[in-house]
């Protein structure tokens, strides 16, 4: 077997993906909601990255006035102990996005592994893995996180772990579907024919090609995790040392009527960030068109089902 | 519906249920400290701990422990709530009617509102109507449910004053029968709408894409060719098949719905399982917390089972799959 | 203006439509008996106040029961189940003569056997404060006959009369509890007491109903009954009060107080009583087992970095005063004035921390250099354990100490976990304690300072503070019978403690009750509604 022979089938799909991706991005931008999604997501990311530059104050430091309504000095007002809310919301983006990213990474790692293993192996292994996926899919995630925190104490690590380890089933299903569909495609058959090992085919050929469909779900998942984090903050399970949007929203509760700004702005920040990724995922799904429909029977909407 | 499909689907429940029991068993064992504390709460006396340890088999080998624990739970024995000194299962079951009423009403509202909206949006995709409806759905779906609830309280209950702020009935009301039903209904409206808002978002999108799909199918084209009006085409030919997936999604979203219900109950002081979750959490009443987890998990399995069977009953294609 | 007008108009129209619709469909649903509607923050779970010091249970159950004595709003003892009493042996023996003809709500007669049983089998076993304060000094509680009870102590015990009210020592019916496990007795959720109200119904998570006890030995209640609505969210409680859904709140959240003060339909009552005790001081305790806090310069440095006035203003929202002594200003004979309490002085704080070896480079977090028991280069990060409801104390402390180069990590722990972490396993750096002083330093101050009370018991000596001179001053103050003499011992004790600074006393807190003007005659104490009356509800 010659090296050049081996490279040819391996290289082709990779290039194909690259091309597809570039054109997909252009297609996403072409959709109005896609543009808004990109803008909102970009804005959120920029805020998270640039928080130290953008924030007018140390988010933990005390200002002169407590419970000040929005003013030129404090654009989003101050909280009960006099901290600048705008700085809190800007820094909060970091914690919230970091947590959602961590969950997404864990979920993707698990989902991709299980899904591709199931799809590629087929047969009994596929059956077994899919049963396992069903089990994880019906686990009530939110209640599981609450029980976990009750038993193990609060902390971001366990929240990420529990949410990550329970959020992968939808991704596994999509990856499996993609792999099943690709298994009999030319370039995969070619790779198999030349004796490329299974793991190599999976990682080099199938993963890159299945990724776009999974990306839709990862985007939706990202948004859901932001919402779960907010809900945990709301019921008082947030980490008080890490400013996050959920924590801010939770702290605002006692001030619903005396300081509307305390609930308005963190809630808006969450809504905008979630809206951004949802729009983006949506636009991406409609660009993938037939492929997304094939992966998620209801044209992308199905990915919404397994939340919380 | 073939008997084989039903049987196979019923059998699938067993490994799933076993898995959930395993998860809760693992939680109890991985938690820091003595497993019996996780199971019985940390307020027991030695005699009580000894009893619980024996009852749930925690004094035996690990596999035997799992077996005993599973047997206990399947029999509905979730231990004792140390706060209330009663069976945890009783404490939980007492709260289920309120939660079921809230979630059931929210689902009905969601379907009633979402299916027509979804159909309208899907009829002319990317039109102005579609854009408006889709934006609304996505907006609702993107906002945290507690936030929507708080805004609803501020605007509808406080500012406009047309709904009570909290609770399930007027305090101290002794009304029974029809007046009581109306009293509950009045308190139910706002929380149910807020909870429904999340489902509406999903169902609108689902119905919309279903309708878009169906409108291009042969039977719809044939109907059009026969000169049937656009509205009749939508109602008679496209919509009935387009809403089929809605049935499955309702089951798949049971977990989400229960979490949303918990938050909504906390916001609106609705006396269901979600409120119990919060108070047990604050008191670290672990038997009740674990019990709630198990009950919700089994409820989700059940919801999935029922919707799958219902879907199969409606759509003959599934039975073959 | 126009917008406001339009809004009001819209509200009127919608309100009218809504009301019409509601009254049309609701019919008699809104029928409310002539009782009072009150709001409780937590579902108590059970209604036995003798087996717990949980504030939620006491809030819900106190009306059903009585103590031997009762305490008025000024915390002065007056007769309740006991009609009169004698103090003998210089305060080591108390004899109580019980009121005759008192009956339990189920018709059984109340006797001295109930008192003896309740103390010996229940209170001294399960009631954390009574067990901790009275328990070690108590020799026996005996019924001498049907209507006389005698308490014997090992040493003179001055504060007993402050500890016999319905919160500290509610009396249970022996005939229902004898021979059972008090923690799992059915009467815990269907209670039978002697109190001004009888138990009527308990709907878990929703409401508890009470009916007036027409045979009450005291003044029978004017109200027909009470409905206690469980509303877990403080902000929602306020909304419910303003909309007239409830008539009484046990506690108004600080931020809402200013708004409610302006509401002509609402009256506020400020009080130093709380369900957990009275005259509380929110206190920061240093864990003296930790090397970082063994140096008094560190403790004093941190105390100098704390602005107590800001705590009063931004955390207590003005309800209270900055604590300036270990004993509350509300115990006048024992409170010491003019003590050298470290004042807010960031420069002084910096000097003390520097000299203790915690150096600061450039405005960042201090690091250790030559601190005994701490590796050089360790950043000065301290944990601060709080209850979730006190998280705002943590936020403000973090902000204040940040300016002094100390990083605070707030650990919000639920009540049960907090007790376990702080008092049992002592796994904390600093922690918060709302130490309720009560009406005598013996009740609420002694427990946090004497070395014999370093114990795995909630609200014991949290700091782990040992000072033989302080121990002995407490002994002498407890047995001295002259108030002036006791005051002198307490003053000497406070001077030492303030120098050692094992705690930083932050805020003497007050809480605010509120009621609608429809009702009047409420009291801040446990039997809050015993004498209340309400005008009939106009709809």
The number of strands of chain C is 25
Q: Calculate the terminal CA-CA distance of chain C, rounded to whole Å.
A: 29 Å
Q: What fraction of the residues of chain B are assigned to beta strands by DSSP?
A: under 5%
Envelope shape of chain B: globular
Write down the overall mean pLDDT of chain C. 87
Shape of chain C: globular
Question: Can you describe this structure?
Answer:
The complex is a heterotrimer of chains A (308), B (321) and C (539). Chain A is 74% helix and 0% strand. With 308 residues, chain A is mainly α. Chain B has a two-stranded antiparallel sheet. Chain B starts with a helix and ends with a helix. The mean pLDDT of chain B is 82. With 539 residues, chain C is of the alpha+beta class. The chains are: A mainly alpha (308), B mainly alpha (321), C alpha+beta (539). Chains B and C meet through strand 1, helix 5, helix 7, helix 8 and helix 13 of B and helix 1, strand 10, helix 6 and helix 12 of C.
Topology (elements, then pairings):
The complex is a heterotrimer of chains A (308), B (321) and C (539).
Chain A: H1 3-30, H2 32-54, H3 85-121, H4 123-138, H5 141-152, H6 156-166, H7 169-183, H8 186-193, H9 198-234, H10 245-251, H11 260-288, H12 290-295
Helix pairs in contact in A: 1-8, 1-9, 1-11, 2-3, 2-11, 3-4, 3-6, 3-7, 3-9, 3-10, 3-11, 4-7, 5-6, 7-9, 8-9, 9-10, 9-11, 10-11
Chain B: H1 3-30, H2 35-40, H3 46-55, H4 62-74, E1 80-81, E2 86-87, H5 88-123, H6 128-142, H7 145-159, H8 177-215, H9 218-225, H10 230-242, H11 244-252, H12 254-268, H13 273-283, H14 286-314, H15 316-320
Antiparallel strand pairs in B: 1-2
Helix pairs in contact in B: 1-4, 1-14, 5-6, 5-8, 5-14, 6-8, 7-8, 7-12, 8-10, 8-11, 8-12, 9-10, 11-14, 12-13, 13-14
Chain C: H1 2-26, E1 36-40, H2 55-61, E2 69-71, E3 77-79, E4 82-88, E5 93-98, H3 112-126, H4 128-133, E6 138-145, E7 148-153, H5 174-177, E8 197-203, E9 207-212, E10 225-230, H6 234-242, E11 248-249, H7 254-261, E12 266-271, E13 273-274, E14 277-278, E15 280-286, H8 296-305, H9 308-314, E16 320-322, H10 346-355, E17 358-359, E18 367-368, E19 381-386, H11 391-403, E20 407-412, H12 415-424, E21 430-436, H13 441-444, H14 446-449, H15 468-479, H16 483-500, E22 503-509, E23 511-516, E24 519-520, E25 533-534
Parallel strand pairs in C: 1-10, 1-11, 19-20, 19-21
Antiparallel strand pairs in C: 2-3, 4-5, 5-7, 6-7, 8-9, 9-10, 11-23, 12-23, 13-14, 15-21, 15-22, 16-22, 17-18, 24-25
